[in-house]
Request: fold
Amino acid sequence: MCGIVGYVGHRDVVPILLEGLTRLEYRGYDSAGVAVVDRGGSVGIRRAAGKLVNLKTELADDPLAGAYGIGHTRWATHGKPTTENAHPHQDAAGRIALVHNGIIENFLELRSGLEERGVEFVSETDTEVIVHLVSSYYEGDLAAAVRRTLDDLEGIYAIVVASADEPDKLVTARQGPPIVVGLGENENFIASDVPPVMGYTRDVVFLDDGQLAVVTPDEVTIQDGAGNAVEAVAQRVTWDPVTAEKGGFKHFMLKEIHEQPTAIRDSLIGRVNRHTGQIDLGELNLDEDLANSMSELLLLGCGTSWHAALVGKYWIEKLAGVPVKVDHASEFRYRDPLVADGAVACAITQSGETADTLAATREAKDRGAKLWTICNVVGSMATRISDGVLLTQAGPEIGVASTKAFTTQLTCLYLIALKLAELRGRLSREAIELRLHNLARLPGQIEGIVAQADKIDEVARRVQHFKQFLFIGRGLLYPIALEGALKLKEISYIHAHGYPAGEMKHGPIALIDDGVPIVALAPQSDLYEKTASNMQEAKARDGFILAVATEGDENLADFSDELLSIPDCLPEFAPLLASVPLQLLSYYVAVRLGCDVDQPRNLAKSVTVE
Ligand code: M6R
Reply:
């Protein structure tokens, strides 16, 4: 939610800020703005409602130049996405500028207090109170004024502040949303995420919650919440910057769908040896004692990550015999959950910064659970609060719709299921080797599905006019029905509902007529016949049937209007394969409807607010 950037150094600041914002636009795209301090010591601000391109036009018409500055791309929480509400916000004297990601919960109270003291507000945002507070506390030391302001704030924030009166200095602080400081030579960078700094440096410092950093061209000094100096511990980012570019694809989403074979391979490399059946999940800190003493596993996530958790439950209970509870993180945190002695809670989160997921895992920890995280972002908050981490190795996922993050989450959950099964003596070495052998075939099989893109685009052409869809599946494929429906609705704005196929006759079948297509997940499995019956029931009511079936299935072809195939596989692996044609279907429907695939309306990639 919202992207922030800052630069202080020897280069012209505006191109750096704009480039950084371009790489962060996935975090929010309601409005954008920059504030720059020029050599004469005055602050220039340009802001524009709508996408970043509007700000670029504004800057082309009315340029700014300077040596240090800050920028922001917004996902609106308080106040409409107008130019007035766009960041940066300024104090009344126009000497201090500030960008913010997060929500200030007590802003109304703070705002009335400031208004009583004569401060005039020009926006509807919660953010504006922060800059006025900084200004009210300013006595020649920006960091001290920011520190005092933070004491007044309730809520979550990542902020960057610049003052015209303290040249070549930025002050940044976080409580919740991430801040990354990129360390350069006589220049330093601040950003919400790593991609904006990758073109300049691979050495970064991830600020911790409660920390404040003073960033100048030559120095980064960090203080903890009490104002004590803290050592800046740098980490090296090993991603290839090209991975964060579109690389010839029309959209990031399409590129990321194509990257799934590599992402899954990368998630397996170094962890499994299919010849010896060895599984090494070192960073998870899972040993025989824990595997056998664990009373239950709580899988917590939101959206797509929650769907991955649902699949994980089937695998872990079946293969390892560990009871698994799955919760929406946003529900778990508020429902006084029971956490058994000996429970392990596992956050599943691509970004590692989803506010609800972080709060839920903290709740589980407070109730005595050990914490694991399956996460895609090294150094993110979820990884730092956990006792064990399994990184998904998907590389940066920029498209708002999750694709490769999902299938690598599934891969990691499957590895956990197998490792638990091994440590609990539930599967023989041969049974594990057989599964690892089949797991290693998945990337090649996904390449085969992706190669059917033209056929899937043709199906998209046939179904794009429908106004609603039902996705159905049973067992392991029920969560994939949910995920297929989520993908379609989030990027094409078509209403879609995922349902367990066996539940159709308990209500949703009433919806079916020739205007409601049913996407039925029916690859070979022990539930195949049952799903096929549900499809026939839908066909008997004139439903348009789009089946996802095992290659060569002639039976379903008889009563399906369209058929997409996935390769023959162990039924356990069907969720990984069946997800891919559904991702492509949603993608092509959305493209055909002219939707903004990578940046769907009202959404943002990382949901760092409740
Ligand atoms: O970063 P996270 O995995 O914690 O994000 C959770 C959800 O916001 C996310 O999975 C969302 O549902 C997907 N981007 C939808 O495609």
About this structure: Residues 302-305, 349-351, 354, 357, 400-402, 490, 606-607 surround 5-amino-5-deoxy-1-O-phosphono-D-mannitol (CB under 6 Å).
